[in-house]
Amino acid sequence: MRKIKDERLIIQNLKNIRTAFLIQSIGILGILIYEGISNGYHAAINNPLWVVFIISIIVLNFLNIRVSVDVYDDQEQPKKPGPYYKTIIWTTLIGLVFGLILYVTGEGVKVSLIVGGVVFLCSSIPFMFALYYRKKRFHENYD
Q1: Fewer CB atoms < 10 Å away: N or C end of the chain?
Q2: Do 98 and 119 form a contact (C-beta atoms < 8 A)?
Q3: 39, 36, 38: which is closest to 50 by C-alpha?
């Protein structure tokens, strides 16, 4: 196959890929919903399609972080991105709040620590990527 050089064809190819991904995701979600209704919630979660669906959504969201940073940072004079420790403090507080809520509801210390840690990781990693892209873009444009 030859590499496509025409921008119109590249954009059309990307639209086709997006449409195929959307149809695939709707199909997987439909299968999981049918599995959940007919065999129960645990059968749908134990289905390997569940893992494929979750991983594809996570990858899509991480790939869209860079686009989101570029779209929302199109200001005339963007300020320099702040330090990462502020993000760590906020995500730690969010994780602690979730852990404390579970502890207060009687889930136990082990479950509270696990949920608080997962919430901390799941909220700090995307912020880390976004901050990296913002700093990289700032240094490319203003250094």
Answers
A1: N
A2: yes
A3: 36
Q: What is the DSSP letter of 73?
A: T
Vertex 130: Cα angle to 55 and 80 (nearest 5): 180
Sequence ranges of the domains in the chain: 1-72, 76-143
What pTM was estimated for this model as a whole?
0.60
What's at 36, amino acid-wise?
A: G
**Which own/partner pairs from 126-130 qualify as long-range (CB within 8 Å, at least 24 positions apart)?**
126/61, 126/62, 126/65, 127/87, 127/91, 128/84, 128/87, 129/62, 129/65, 129/66, 130/65, 130/68, 130/69
- 123/121 Cα distance (integer angstroms): 5
Report the distance separating Cα 137 and Cα 83, nearest Å. 15
CA distance 132 to 63: 13
In angstroms, what CA-CA distances link 74 with 69, 71, 91? 9, 6, 26
What would the pLDDT profile of 54-92 be if each residue is shown by its tens digit? 888 888 887 777 777 666 655 555 566 677 788 889 889
